[in-house]
Amino acid sequence: xxxxxxxxxxxxxxxxxxxxxxxxxxxxxxxxxxxxxxxxxxxxxxxxxxxxxxxxxxxxxxxxxxxxxxxxxxxxxxxxxxxxxxxxxxxxxxxxxxxxxxxxxxxxxxxxxxxxxxxxxxxxxxxxxxxxxxxxxxxxxxxxxxxxxxxxxxxxxxxxxxxxxxxxxxxxxxxxxxxxxxxxxxxxxxxxxxxxxxxxxxxxxxxxxxxxxxxxxxxxxxxxxxxxxxxxxxxxxxxxxxxxxxxxxxxxxxxxxxxxxxxxxxxxxxxxxxx
Length: 275
Known about the structure:
- The structure is a single chain.
- By secondary structure, the protein is α+β, with helices and mostly antiparallel strands.
- The protein has one domain (about 5-260): Jelly Rolls, CATH 2.60.120.
- Helices cover about 25% and strands about 30% of the residues.
- Strands 1-2-3-10-5-8 form a 6-stranded antiparallel β-sheet. Strands 11-4-9-6-7-12 form a 6-stranded antiparallel β-sheet.
- Strand 6 and strand 7 form a beta hairpin.
- The radius of gyration is 19 Å and the shape is globular.
């Protein structure tokens, strides 16, 4: 098996037709849906607008969700299949397998886009552990299987702590997407709910001039008691926790605000905020 065949994996020719059947079975209309090329062009406009500040983070977030509902997912899958895929390296701990995606134009040349793109392939043992973000925005569309997606708003940064609140918890199927910005759903957590699953991610980084391109802050939102306060794990310990721990249920017990330690230090906030 050559290197390209290994990278394509689940994107083999027959998978596109299996995907098309799945979308149709779900009752989606194929005719009249947004073409993959128009979807890619709209992604370019949105990413440039987000970087320039002509599009707000909330508007970008909501538009990404709308585009996911309207795009012809089978066409998008075909565009990804013909793209240039490169190995994202050996997954760390329980992370899913990553492949970087370089989209191609009609002539087979690299398409210059103002965002990064990647595929993440999950097995039941994989999980993207909960984490917060800085200086970036991203959107994640399910292309295969089912993925449980949990999101949280980042309400405030305190000395050594993040103050966050849960916003959603649902199982996403093919064509569903979740977006992340500083202003909305800044923390997310992905766990597969099928034997295999795959997401296609769009990443817009370097949103804050003078800062690093992006920053990832692992957190642990489990185990909230009646008060809603949690003593989270250090980032180094968090990444080593067995994936099964992060695939289990989360106690949503009333939408109280929860603070979490960042990876910078381990001071725990005790300030109570309104929900």
